[in-house]
Each structure stands twice: as structure tokens, then as C-alpha cells.
Specification:
Layout (H helix, E strand, L loop, with lengths): L17 E2 L10 E9 L2 E8 L3 E6 L13 H6 L2 E6 L17 H14 L5 E6 L2 H11 L4 E7 L8 H17 L4 H9 L2 H6 L1 H13 L2 H13 L4 H4 L6 E6 L7 H10 L4 E5 L6 H4 L1 H14 L4
Parallel strand pairs: 4-5, 4-6, 6-7, 7-8, 8-9
Antiparallel strand pairs: 1-2, 2-3, 3-5
GO molecular function, one term: catalytic activity
InterPro entries: AB_hydrolase (IPR050471), AB_hydrolase_1 (IPR000073), AB_hydrolase_fold (IPR029058), Epox_hydrolase-like (IPR000639)
Protein name: Pimeloyl-ACP methyl ester carboxylesterase
Length: about 300
């Protein structure tokens, strides 16, 4: 197992119930967090609210705290919002023998659902979380009530993108996880946000620093070698929402438009003034889009 330092508050398998403060005008909802033994790894999760389960999967190289501005508003509207840290990211750890792969990330997420007694859920994936959600759908479509795709992509990586992720892996291995923050933050947030909301930059930078080197290398390899999920899109029959930051330079709007064209009945919402981390940067608008879509599709 990885032996990265962990905060004492999160050493217990199940922590005490906490209360979160609503960030978008909703009432507070009970929040539970803990660590689960999953497929040889220790996966940290946060579960907030009660009602229809909604599992949100973060991107590279972040953690479930990417959704810290979404949990309260969604939980207050009647959803049980569950976020996890993929193995090796955030407060999760992984064995050296399996730091992470697309199959493992998908298996971990399904196993967390099992351990939390969640037979079916609305499942959302941001960036790398999208390919993970596609892999989950290929393995267990019956576990999906709905699908949310956030600044992600179904295409396999181009030659240029493959080399970009290989470079990220090499940089993390040579200079540590913190070295990735400057490379990534310029794409995660718009220039306007980086200049005027420095706390947002600090928050995401701190999350990037929490990852292990092995996780950074594994995640970069997953992104570089991800399969073509365009054929999978044509098999999706659950209600699907696609959220895209207008200024996303990692996976621009055109990729989201292509996903919409290939998923029957899907809805695309483009958020102005948002880049790759649109779910965080424009959280209120993203929350509204999710709730409007969920209500329209009777996902309650």
C-alpha cells in the first residue's frame, strides 16, 4: 500500500456525521465520509444528503473535492451525492502492484456503490471521469439511472495528446505531483478566474499536490491509451446530460457536440466563462443545469 501522510480526521473507516453549509442557497444536509477497502486499495468517499444517488467521478489529477461546490446544492434538492477519490488521488491510497488503470478505476467505483448499498445511481464523470463512466457503462449499464458527462471526451487520444500525457507522467515522476499544477491550472480555469479569484487557484493546486507520483503516472497512461468510446455512445439509453465550459481548451466544445450527436436524446449545456474545471469554476450554473435536467427526466 502507499504510505503517503494522511490527515488524522480521515484515518477512521467511517467518520462522524458532519454538516455541510449550502453554497447555492440550499439547506444543510448531513455529510458522511470514510474510507473503504476496495480491490486492494483504500478509497476515500464523501456522501451527502439522501434521496436519489448521484455518484460523481473526478478528473486527472484531482480528487472528489473538485465537487465541493456541488454537493450542498444537489443534496438540498433531494439527491444523495457521493464523491470518491480515485486510488492514489486525494485521500485514497493504492497498492504498488496496481496504482490505477481504466478497468481498476471503473471496478473501484462499482465496488464503492456496492459497499454503500447503492444499486443504481446517476453517474457523472469529469474529464478522466468520463472514460471511467463509459467503462462502467460497458460493464454494468444496469447500474445507471442517468449519465452526466462534464468537460470530457469519447474519442481516443490523438498522437499529440498521447505525447502530452506521457510528458505529464515524466514530469510527475521527475519533479513530483506539485510540478503538474502550473501546467494544468492554465487549462482548468479561465484567465479571468486565475487573475481575480486566486483562492480558486490555490484550492485546485492543493488538490493536485495530494496525488501520489504513481497515481499521476497511472492516470496519464489511462488518458493516453483510452479506448474509442464513440461506439459506446450509441448504446447509451439512459438520460444523459453533457456539461461543457465554453473556454475549455483541453476537450473543446466540438467534442461535446459530437457526444450529443451520438447519444440519443442527450442534452448539451455550454457554460460561458468556464474552462476545463467548469463544474467548479461555474458551480452555481452547473448545479442549475444538473437539477433542471434531472427534474425534466424524473430522476428523483
Amino acid at each position: 500500500m502507499s504510505h503517503r501522510p494522511r490527515r488524522p480526521l480521515f484515518l477512521a473507516a467511517l467518520s462522524a456525521t458532519l454538516l455541510g453549509t449550502a453554497l447555492a442557497g440550499g439547506s444543510t444536509a448531513p455529510q458522511q465520509m470514510g474510507d473503504l477497502d476496495v480491490n486492494g486499495a483504500r478509497i476515500h468517499y464523501v456522501s451527502q444528503g439522501s434521496g436519489t444517488p448521484m455518484l460523481l467521478l473526478h478528473g486527472y489529477p484531482l480528487s472528489g473535492e473538485l465537487f465541493s461546490r456541488n454537493r450542498d446544492a444537489l443534496a438540498a434538492a433531494g439527491y444523495r451525492v457521493i464523491t470518491i477519490d480515485h486510488r492514489g488521488y486525494g485521500r485514497s491510497t493504492a497498492p504498488a502492484s496496481d496504482p490505477g488503470s481504466l478497468a481498476t478505476y471503473a471496478q473501484d467505483a462499482l465496488a464503492v456503490m456496492d459497499q454503500l448499498n447503492v444499486p443504481r445511481a446517476i453517474i457523472g464523470g469529469m474529464s478522466m471521469g468520463g472514460p471511467i463512466a463509459f467503462e462502467m457503462y460497458r460493464r454494468a449499464p444496469e447500474r445507471f439511472l442517468g449519465l452526466i458527462l462534464i468537460d470530457t471526451i469519447a474519442n481516443p487520444a490523438s498522437l499529440v495528446e498521447q505525447n502530452l500525457w506521457k510528458g505529464m507522467a515524466q514530469k510527475a515522476a521527475q519533479f513530483g505531483p506539485q510540478s503538474l499544477a502550473p501546467e494544468l491550472l492554465k487549462d482548468m480555469l479561465t484567465g479571468q478566474t486565475r487573475v481575480t479569484r486566486r483562492a480558486d487557484v490555490t484550492f485546485l493546486t492543493d488538490i493536485v499536490k495530494q496525488a501520489s507520483v504513481a497515481a499521476d503516472v497511472a492516470g496519464a497512461n489511462v488518458l493516453a491509451t483510452r479506448p474509442d468510446s464513440i461506439p459506446t455512445l450509441k448504446t447509451i439509453t439512459v438520460p444523459t446530460l453533457i456539461i461543457e465550459g465554453l473556454e475549455d481548451t483541453v476537450y473543446p466544445v466540438e467534442f461535446s457536440q459530437k457526444m450529443q450527436q451520438n447519444i440519443a436524446g442527450s442534452k448539451l449545456v455550454i457554460l460561458p466563462g468556464a474552462a476545463h474545471a467548469a463544474i467548479f469554476e461555474k458551480a452555481s450554473a452547473a448545479n442549475t443545469a444538473i437539477l433542471n435536467w434531472a427534474r425534466a427526466n424524473n430522476l428523483r
